[in-house]
Amino acid sequence: MPSKLVLTEEQLRDVLERAEELQHGDTTNTYAAVIEAAKEAGLSEDNVTKALQERLGLLGSPPAAGELIFAKGTQNRFFAAEVIEQGEHSYRVRFLNGGEHSVRFEDLRPLNLFPGEQLVCPWPDWGWWTCSLVRYDPEKRKVRVSDNFGTEKTFDLSEVFRADPSQPFKMKLNWLMVGLSLGSGVIGSLLTWLAMR
Q1: What is the dihedral of CA 112, 117, 120, 123, to 10 degrees?
Q2: Would you say the pTM of this structure is higher than 0.85?
Q3: Which helix (H) or strand (E) element contains residue 189?
Q4: 7: helix, coil or strand?
Q5: Residue range 152-179, pLDDT digits in tens
Q6: What is the dihedral of CA 98, 99, 104, 105, to 10 degrees?
Q7: Residues 2-39 pLDDT 10s
Q8: Which residues pair with residue 86 across a beta bridge?
């Protein structure tokens, strides 16, 4: 990892909160300023490093053949994939939803599937929807997610992709359009009924 990093106050707070969570229960070269601040707060360097990797979506070390990771696929989305082999400047991966591709190390993300992780799922009747992970079954490669409104569903890992934290509104645009369509349909029906009276 690079030795210099500029974090926003919110990112720094998130990283330190996660490092504290790891310190109390829940794994190298890191960003010197964050590590020093965490050490002063009594947190271990290993836990701060893991928290940085989780929160910023970074791999700690090159993945080995057979390892599951998220790899950049179509439309700059990160899909679950298995590493087939490491080349000189790239990795050959097999996406769980089909197809093989060569990607750079920078286009790989860890397959961190912890409760609360944001995944984009093909929600029935809504289309692509940003969901919160409830649990992950690595043997079956299934994820149980919540739509954040009290409904849970299970999807195969091959059906979902990693949410981009910088684009939360874009993923929920389909739902907004459905709501606007339904609302305008109801208003139109009411106006027609009133005009017919």
Answers
A1: 120
A2: no
A3: helix 173-196
A4: coil
A5: 999 999 999 998 765 554 444 555 555 5
A6: 30
A7: 456 677 888 778 778 777 766 665 433 335 667 777 77
A8: 91
